[in-house]
Amino acid sequence: MTPADLSLTVLHAVRRAVDDGALRVEVPPRIKVERARPGGTGEYASNIALTLARSAGRSAREVAGIIEERLRDAPGLRGVEITGPGFLNFTLRSDAGSELVRAVLAAGPAYGHGTALAGTTVRFAEVTEPRAVIVAETVVGLLRSQGAEAGRLGGDDPLGERKGDRPGRRIGERKGDRMGERKGDRLGERIHVRPGAYDVEALGVDAARWSLLRAAPHDRPLDGPPLLAQHERNSLFRVRYAYSRVRRLLVHGEQLRITPSYETSVDAHELFGALGDHPTVLLAAARHRAPDRVARHLEATADALLAFQHTVLPLGDEKPSAAHRSRLALAEAAGTVLAGGLSVLGISAPDRI
């Protein structure tokens, strides 16, 4: 990881903290990192927490802690330490790319699933409006992917209301809180969305779901017809096309007898960043009831993969090497994340488009 890569990684962590609502500041255009000074720890340091503290209305050490939380699994970092009034100190690692790729491939489509919300029970009120139904269904899946018990009241949902049941404790609610006991809340947590039609007949399942889930719940759904066009302006097409490109790269690699295996460092900062962010994005989407975060993250992952794909296999008379095997493994990991994210949204990942 170069100083420029590290600067982008820290900037990305700040942006995620702002998107999550943990920090209320204007994201700076760039973040300066420099070699750690004598007496410091690690190899590089940044004073970004001190810079943001005043506008955030927090102490610099609090801001540094929020940023540090979002850097713990960042590829290329062995450790992050907070020193003094709030300096962030970074220790780099040379094998982080290998570990990330192996972690993704070992977990498969379940990469990013975890237990952060284990012990939490969430039930959603019964809804009939088409978009609310799709969003609620998707949020239930997101919550379960993070270890929560979640479901919708009524019907044959396994967490449906039974005689004598009371609404489950919500995320962030302490035992004894009365949040779920207010008038009108006894039927479960409500999903609030701007209404939209689930037009499967005209769009098919994939485009119909993307039109409702890609837009933030309070925004109007995406127009349906453009989602059927095979064009780079179509976000759904880009994501599914990127996945199909990975499948073709793996087929062509097999023909060239190139087996995916991460053996040497690959210069693909944006793609590594997208893969490393995936678990955090899934957790934030579950906590905020916001499937659109997953959709936007898939777009970023797809764009990074499409920019990287041309370097994966040998060109012309170039002989296959460890670099190609490593790039192919990284591409396979990206495809795994795309497939897993689409699955969370209830959208298919085709091998060919």
Could you explain the architecture of this structure?
By secondary structure, this protein is α+β, with helices and mostly antiparallel strands. Helix content is 45%, strand content 7%. The strands form two sheets. Strands 1-2-4-3 form a four-stranded antiparallel beta sheet, with helices on one face. Strand 3 and strand 4 (87-92) form a beta hairpin. Helix 8 runs antiparallel to helix 9 (291-308). The longest helix has 23 residues, at 322-344. 44% of the residues are buried. Residues 155-185 have low confidence and may be disordered.
Query: Gyration radius, to the nearest Å?
Result: 22 Å
Largest sheet: 4 strands, antiparallel
For this structure, the CATH topology of the largest domain is Isoleucyl-tRNA Synthetase, Domain 1
Structural class, judged by helices and strands? alpha+beta
Helix content: 40-55%
Counting DSSP E segments of at least 2 residues, the number of strands comes to: 6
Shape: globular
Unreliable spans are 155-185
Mean pLDDT score, rounded?
87
Order of helices and strands: HEEHHEEHEHEHHHHH
Number of helices: 10
Q: What fraction of the residues are assigned to beta strands by DSSP?
A: 5-15%
CATH class category label of the largest domain: Mainly Alpha
What is the spatial order of strands in the main beta sheet? Answer: 1-2-4-3
Tell me what the CATH architecture of the largest domain is: Orthogonal Bundle
* Terminal CA distance: 35 Å
